Amino acid sequence: MRLLVTGGAGFIGSNFVRYVAKATGYELLVYDKLTYAGRLENIADLVREGRVGFVRGDIADEESFKRVVSEYQPDAVVNFAAETHVDRSINEPAPFIRTNVLGVFTVLETLRRQGGDTLLFHVSTDEVYGDLYGSSAEAGEDYPLNPSSPYSASKASGDLLIKAYARTYGLEYIIVRPCNNYGPYQHPEKLVPRTIIRLLHGKPAVIYGDGGQVRDWIHVEDTSRALLLLLEKAPKGQVYNVCRGNYATVREVVERLVRYMGFDPSEKVVYAKRRPGEDMRYAMRCDKLRELGWRPVYDLETGLRETVKWYLGNEWWWRPLVEEAYVLADTPW
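Above: the chain's sequence. Below: its structure in token form.
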């Protein structure tokens, strides 16, 4: 199989590329804009070894993307390319609309105009379902979309565009919606690496609001395994949730990390103003994925401990990002 992986130098994208390069003989070409969160360092060893190709480019750049698709002729476009940080979307929504909506439109138009049967394997998010706080519901794939932030609204828009193109033009697609990922190569603006790095600098961990936000936490390698399985075995023209059932509040995760690093949460956790429009609970059902035979490997304790070890052992990777990501600042974006 020949895969064009857009956004393949980002967090989940690079972990997926690394997993596929190890587990299969597929041909891989990464197409990435290399924004602040997409770093060539994430896949540099694979590129040097010739196991993965790389082209720098923007999915919203029609001419560039069209040229790469025409020359490479992929069997599937695996689209991770996205602006993803909710805080940034609140302060500056425009880049999210450009990449997550117009970028998806450009991908769709390119595939439509070239004809053929190239699959669009699109990575979305559980946040498109919105806040399930006050309910015991778990969102199945047919659950109504009810996004709360500019980020989640832009992702929901991309999902709906894809489904519309499938119905109107016969586009082949699979949409996947993962829950909260953590693990190696995650940008320090996100909760888990930010907490680890602040503690290493003698700073307290920061929780926005009361920390009662409930998330389902999945290690990125489990996500990568799920995505490869879906790419190879899932019926096309469908949506698949990717979740773990590791429900924990933000406060619980932060306190675990603090303890794993040898500190007392009562002394090393501070609270900041709640984020505007904060969703308090995400929850999904993943029956469709499990019916295909996927089973996760990491429980939350093992996954978080392994993640702490990775960041402790890879300061070279995160050190250049600390200042630009405001990791050491105590207030939100």
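The two ends are 41 Å apart (CA to CA).
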